[in-house]
Amino acid sequence: MSSLTLTRAEARLSSYSACLLPNTAGVSEDHCSGEYSHWLNMRNIMEELVRRNHSVSVLVADASPSVDYNNSRDAAKFNFLVFKVPFSRAELHGLTEELVHFSMYESHVSSPLTKFLKARDWLRRTVGLGMQQCDSMLKNEQLMVTLRDAAFDAVLLDPMVMCGDLVADVLGLPLIISLRFSIGGVLERHCGHAPAPPSYVPPAPLPYGDHMTFVERLISTVAYVWLSVMTEVFWRLTLDQYYSEVKGQRAGPSYRHTNYC
């Protein structure tokens, strides 16, 4: 990223609270950052760009629980572009609190079946909000025209964000991932072809290091296979269809079915 954004006179970034959009001129970058600590990480990147005389615009959902787009300190450095989503800040923040509470106080005394059902329900609701936010960006013609007119040169994406890569694709921009993080490393392995030998690189969220016993390596391998299968099924049932729909609307009737990767 540094060779692209920091060696040129100007840069445009874009991100939003679920994809923020920093912006400048010369090299233009689209920042897609997540919430909470993910936003703090992305903000540090943007502040450094501002320090180096880049101008930055931030596209943020009005329900973001992390990005205070009315903060005078941040408004002095970034130009916030706020788009509306059909859910509230409390609803989005409540999902995170629910996950943290279960992980800290209930998970260790819950059965594997309970953990699975809780995770499935939380993922279903989280994806539901994420898809609504995708619609609020990608099916908002006025917003997409604004982004095209801004003439960005690249998209910086926090992989926690849904559809940030699709925004980059629709705008015809190269994509930069800000960090390596997905459950089981499926996104990085299947889409980015990152090496991840299960005997030395345990999948998140397993608490192992690079030195594992035989049983831990076996668990690591089974977890990789299980998470890969479940993620691929999830992509096929949700995101593949959505990506084909959005990209097909712009490419015309000759467009073929696509997939998440």
From TrEMBL:
Keyword Mitochondrion annotated: no
Keywords: Glycosyltransferase, Transferase
InterPro entries xrefs: UDP-glycosyltransferase, UDP_glucos_trans
Keyword flag RNA-binding: no
Gene3D superfamilies the record matches: Glycogen Phosphorylase B
Listed Pfam families: UDPGT
GO MF annotation: an example: glucuronosyltransferase activity
The family this protein is said to belong to: Belongs to the UDP-glycosyltransferase family.
Protein name: UDP-glucuronosyltransferase 2A1-like
